[in-house]
Design a protein that fits this description.
eleven-stranded mixed beta sheet, Alpha-Beta Plaits, 461 residues, alpha/beta, globular, Aminopeptidase
């Protein structure tokens, strides 16, 4: 296969020598002027740190007000109606609770933003958490403040791409280990032909600490997971079913990749986790855990967002409808060259995903007849039969019914005609479809080549 197919948006870039860091003398007793300058720098540095801490504390309060202003009764119950915090929230929410005034405004206006979410692993060192680490999680978020919606594209870490600065063909997760976040951003931009506005990097330890700060997260484990890596001190043992996972459990769940799906299954589990985490963050009791979450974020999360921008995104997050989030994984196929496994991107289908989820291109036309597939376990046979009858009564041809045991509930759109608006209307006409995670996958048909597939998952029981 021609290497040009691996990255259809490749741009030429010249390697530049990294600028040398300036070395400062530690001073000496024979040079009092030099010592004075050093002390002045230390004083300014100390002042900046103090100012940063004060700023974080201030915006933490703003963060809480923006995110939890709708939970006055919870605050009254936990803190008392006469407490300072309860009165402050009451005054703010009463003053701004008008139907004519928008609840959410961004400092950069109502335009859509592309935010790159990166999860990095441990480099085995105790020095810099961000040096020499690979990105196990790469998700491109497209956030629209005007419609209060978010789309997400998962990028498999084994995707074969060209790295800038003459680094040649590599897996995309190597970009951060070689050139840091700047090279990762440039690689994503070149590969997808988009612009990244902001980035958020999350260390493995942040996931563990934030989940523990929230008191755990509820996740449906779709299959039995058993794996032991004594060298890497990784021991995974989960049974299929509903689980309330601790921080350590979540890290193990997200790192598991030893099944037929490999890294693709891992990418899907990242999506399940983010869905469960969003549900936890929208709970009113989370307000009491904000200080701990902020302290974790200060150490284990790296971003180019200002505190004000993060608080604004937090305000927007509470209005997200989880059933209105469209997700996709970059289409492609696995390929092994020697001992190296790659995910080879499909250029044409990848462009379709980018156009639909990032550029929000909508196809206004409708088909005269729609076709569907249904995937379910034997235990869900009765529900599958009921769903098939309901779809057929609505004029939709069910071409195929298949068996799939280990999965979550999903509504998978394969056709450009099946938009999230179409799904919303379908749920009104066919309530049996229910609210399921909306996925766009133009390349993988589970049962037959149809317009969409409905997956009945075990977590609905």
């Amino acid at each position: 296969m021609n290497d040009r197919n691996y990255n259809y948006h490749r741009r030429a870039s010249n390697a530049r020598t990294a600028p040398r860091r300036r070395r400062y003398s530690t001073g000496s007793a024979d040079n009092p002027f030099e010592n004075y300058a050093i002390n002045r720098r230390r004083e300014r540095s100390s002042f900046r740190k103090s100012l940063a801490i004060m700023t974080i504390m201030f915006f933490t309060a703003i963060f809480g007000i923006l995110l939890f202003a709708n939970h006055q009764s919870y605050l009254d119950e936990k803190l008392g109606k006469d407490s300072f915090v309860s009165k402050l929230f009451s005054r703010i929410t009463t003053k701004h609770a008008t139907k004519d005034k928008p609840e959410f405004t961004l400092p950069f206006g109502p335009r859509r933003q592309n935010v790159l979410l990166l999860g990095v692993d441990s480099n085995g060192a105790d020095s810099d958490l961000w040096v020499g680490t690979r990105t196990d999680t790469i998700i491109l978020l497209n956030i629209d403040p005007r419609t209060r919606t978010v789309n997400a594209i998962s990028i498999p870490r084994d995707s074969k791409v060209y790295l800038p600065k003459g680094m040649g063909v590599q897996k995309i997760n190597a970009a951060h280990a070689i050139g840091g976040v700047e090279m990762t951003i440039k690689t994503v931009e070149n590969t997808l032909g988009i612009h990244v506005d902001k980035y958020i990097m999350v260390h493995d330890d942040a996931v563990r600490a934030i989940v523990d700060a929230l008191g755990g997260v509820d996740i449906y484990v779709e299959k039995n997971m058993k794996y032991d890596d004594y060298t890497g001190k990784l021991h995974i043992n989960f049974k299929k079913g509903d689980h309330h996972l601790t921080g350590e459990d979540v890290v193990e769940y997200l790192r598991f990749r030893h099944d037929a799906l490999g890294d693709i299954g891992r990418t899907q589990r990242q999506q399940w986790f983010l869905r469960g985490l969003l549900a936890n963050l929208q709970k009113p009791e989370t307000i009491t855990k904000i200080p701990k979450i902020i302290s974790v974020a200060n150490k284990y999360i790296k971003t180019d967002m200002s505190v004000y921008e993060m608080s604004q995104y937090a305000s927007l997050a509470k209005s997200f409808d989880r059933d209105n989030i469209e997700i996709a994984m970059l289409p492609g196929s696995p390929n092994k060259q020697g001992y190296i496994s790659y995910w080879i991107l499909d250029p044409e289908k990848t462009q379709e995903v980018v156009d639909r989820l990032i550029y929000r291109q909508k196809f206004d036309g409708e088909k005269e007849h729609y076709t569907a597939s249904i995937m379910s376990s034997p235990e869900d046979a009765a529900e599958a039969t009921q769903l098939q009858l309901a779809l057929e009564n609505a004029g939709i041809e069910v071409r195929c019914s298949g068996t799939l045991r280990s999965t979550h509930s999903q509504f998978i759109a394969h056709s450009k005609y099946v938009t999230i608006d179409y799904y919303a209307n379908l749920k009104k006409k066919v309530p049996e479809v229910k609210s399921r995670q909306f996925v766009y996958d133009p390349i993988s048909y589970m049962c037959a080549a149809t317009d969409f597939t409905v997956v009945l998952g075990g977590e609905n029981k």
